[in-house]
Amino acid sequence: MTRRLSACRALLIGAACLIMLLASHRLAGSASMQRVAGPLLELDHPVPTNHGNWSNNELEQDDSSIAIPFVNRTREIQDVISEQRLLIAQEMEGYNYPDGQHNITAKSLQDLAPESGGQPIRTLVATTWRSGSTFLGDVLNSHPANFYHYEPLLDYEIMQIREEPLASEAVSKLKALLHCNYTGLDRYLTYGQYHIELFAHNTRLWAQCQEHRDLCWSPDFLSPFCRLFPFQSMKVVRLRLKLVEEFLKDPSLNVRVLLLVRDPRGTVQSRKHRVWCPNHPDCAEPALLCSDLVADYSAAVELNAKYPNRFRVVRYEDLSVEPYTGVQDLFDFFGLDFHPSVQQFLDTHTKVDVGGVSSTYRNSKSAPFHWRQDLSHQEVRNIQRVCWPAMERWGYLLAANSTHQHDFNPLGSFSLTLT
Ligand SMILES: *[C@@H]1O[C@H](CO)[C@@H](O)[C@H](O)[C@H]1NC(C)=O
Ligand SMILES: *[C@@H]1O[C@H](CO)[C@@H](O)[C@H](O)[C@H]1NC(C)=O
Ligand SMILES: *[C@@H]1O[C@H](CO)[C@@H](O)[C@H](O)[C@H]1NC(C)=O
Ligand SMILES: *[C@@H]1O[C@H](CO)[C@@H](O)[C@H](O)[C@H]1NC(C)=O
Ligand SMILES: *[C@@H]1O[C@H](CO)[C@@H](O)[C@H](O)[C@H]1NC(C)=O
């Protein structure tokens, strides 16, 4: 009997050790993968530094106390959801609901939160790598009670999705996320466990993930958690605009879409600083960037005519030169309140230049034009040679020579109505 007990005890200790061993392997694996793969991602925002430091509790647990506490997972999920529901209610105190403005009838949190049958305000920003979307994504996330679906196509790595066979799969995945349905998104969720930037930009989710790491990548937690949020934002840098119509078409989403465009010379210059770019034609070749810009222009003309109230284009440069009025206009378009928290974000992120290339803390007025100094005139000519059709459509002027390049204003005008 005692023998049996001690055998049982040994077995339990063994199992506990195995679990710890596996857990430590996984943490180590995730940390090293992150080092390798981190720069792959459009990670130009300093992510909270304490992530990955999940070395506490069970790893340090004394071996003799094998009492692994029983955690009632259902209860834990319910508790986190209730807590977040309160946090959202706090963030929404005094909120200026649309109540008919911007074509949105919602007058209360209930009208917007999916969990109470509401229709959330959904925003989608479509663009490509290094076009200023990190900044815009963070501006949208500075709005109260926002759930940020940050670049949900990260697991496709460095490629553009332009057509089948990938298009349908990618679109249906994004639709599922916009509906807060995480069931069947196993690849996405597994990827997220090893690439923390997938969730770290979603600050409200990430705060809970740090406390409840066992829940963070599980559909049974994520779906109801996401459904608490009255505002759902998404940015994608890998899906070309033609495919984005699938979202505008879908009345159940009622999404508003913004295409963010940037001068290809600025994009190319910015991508040069990224180690993940060079070996991937979709990122490294100006000709591909610019054929995408031309295709996006054609799609934009069409969407602008078809969905005048739910589709908009903005150039990164225009937004950067006038961040306050620019963001205010965009918030009007999206049906979002230009809340004091947004204003505060702009106050702290558009005026000073700190944090290096990966930061959204910078002087927004000069950031878009660095390429004029950083690229040689020969490099600029090489880009312009393949990009002039895109530049002509989007209203970017050619640099005529080296002197001109250094101090001209590259911004001309563009129009989405064909004359
Ligand atoms: C990890 O977290 C612990 C406690 O949360 C802290 O004391 C320690 O300094 C952290 N280590 C690193 C490397 O951040
Ligand atoms: C876990 O918590 C849920 C909800 O509070 C409760 O219904 C269930 O009975 C609990 N399960 C166990 C095994 O304690
Ligand atoms: C969520 O997605 C899964 C997989 O596509 C589907 O089977 C399920 O019906 C969806 N659930 C809801 C509530 O729409
Ligand atoms: C509001 O929606 C209606 C119908 O969808 C549309 O005709 C109208 O132009 C929209 N107005 C604004 C300001 O978006
Ligand atoms: C450079 O281009 C500008 C603008 O086209 C022109 O006015 C100027 O004369 C050119 N300078 C030289 C050295 O060619």
Automatic annotation (TrEMBL):
Keywords: Signal. Pfam families: Sulfotransfer_1 (PF00685). Residues 122-394 form the Sulfotransferase domain. Residues 1-23 form the signal peptide. InterPro entries: Gal/GlcNAc/GalNAc_ST, P-loop_NTPase, Sulfotransferase_dom. The keyword NAD does not apply. One of its GO terms (molecular function) is N-acetylglucosamine 6-O-sulfotransferase activity. It comes from the Eukaryota. One of its GO terms (biological process) is sulfur compound metabolic process. This is Sulfotransferase domain-containing protein. It comes from Gryllus longicercus.
